[in-house]
Each structure stands twice: as structure tokens, then as C-alpha cells.
Amino acid sequence: MTPIRIYKQDEHGNEVLHYDGVVVSRTETEICVRAVFQYGTADMGYMTMERGDIFTEWFYTDRWYNIFRIENGKTGALRGWYCNITRPAVINAAEIRADDLALDVIITPDGTTHLLDEDEFEALAIPDEDRQAARDAVAHLYAQIAQRRPPFDEITSA
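The chain above was modelled as a monomer; its predicted structure follows.
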């Protein structure tokens, strides 16, 4: 598998963090990578991520979000999905860059959905067009979740 570096950037394009993954698949507008969570325990309130968890991540050049499918690194059990509302990703052979716009959508395996960081999003100094695109991205994700479109086809109940 081909290695790739993923950069999470703030709304101004400044690097917040980076990590390495491997390319699973790629099309003209989408890339799927797999990465291992390298940080300590992160309790999101509705989901906990731990060092060693496996992330399957989808980034898009034509969508204002990315999707992370998270599984327990020890048992393989699905923890859920974590979606970042971002500007469309910039992808090349060596790296992926995405500007995070604060909003996050967490989906548990049973389909319970949580929208996080709305206050932080409202405080961002971004153009109105970006703000509307971010809200539209949340609506698009909610529709995908309701319709159980991949990767949300693993949701266990309504």
C-alpha cells in the first residue's frame, strides 16, 4: 500500500496536526486511507477513541466534509463514525490537506447522531459562502446517514 501524509488545518490553512496513513483506494474526487490512531485516549462524550484504533478515512475534493470510520484496534468492533466539516480536500500523490471548519458529526453504531462544536463554528471568521457550504455539508451527511449510504450501511438500528 502507498503511504500518504494527512494534514488537518485550521480555517486559515495553518497546520494543526499531521499523521501518516496508507492509501486504500482512490478516484478522481475521492481518496480512502487507513491510519492508526497515535494519540492517547480521546473521550468525545458519545464515543471514545484510543491509541491503536483503526481509522478508515474518506476525503473528497468535491465535498465539504470527510468521514472517519473508527474501529477498536484490539477487538475490531465498530466504535462509530466521526465526520469533520471541512473545505474540500486538496489531494496529491504524497499528501491530503483539509481545512477544518469546527463542526463535527459523530454517529454511533446504532445510528444516533450528534452535531458538535456549533458555537466554535459560529465564532469562525470565514466567508458567508463557506459558512453556508458547511451547513449544507451537515445536511448532506444527515441524508446519507438516514439513507444508510456507505459507509453508514453498517448502522445497526434506526
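The longest strand covers residues 95-107.
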